[in-house]
């Protein structure tokens, strides 16, 4: 009556996401600078978590590989580990 679970079935289960506490910066602020630094921080975090595998980092951010490469260039992010 109960379905057996294979190791591949268990491995396919989505992993729970880490809960992040996020607060907005106090106003007044330079919105463009805040967006720029936040975007750069997210790119760097995704790259570190994926051990600088750009394809994996792009997937973490729901971007295409080419979009990620464009943002890396825009923010002058060094890829040497």
UniProtKB/TrEMBL annotation:
MF-aspect GO terms: sequence-specific DNA binding
Domain of life: Bacteria
Organism listed in the record: Klebsiella aerogenes
Protein name: Helix-turn-helix domain-containing protein
Residue ranges of domain DNA binding HTH in the record: 38-69
Segments passing through the bilayer: none
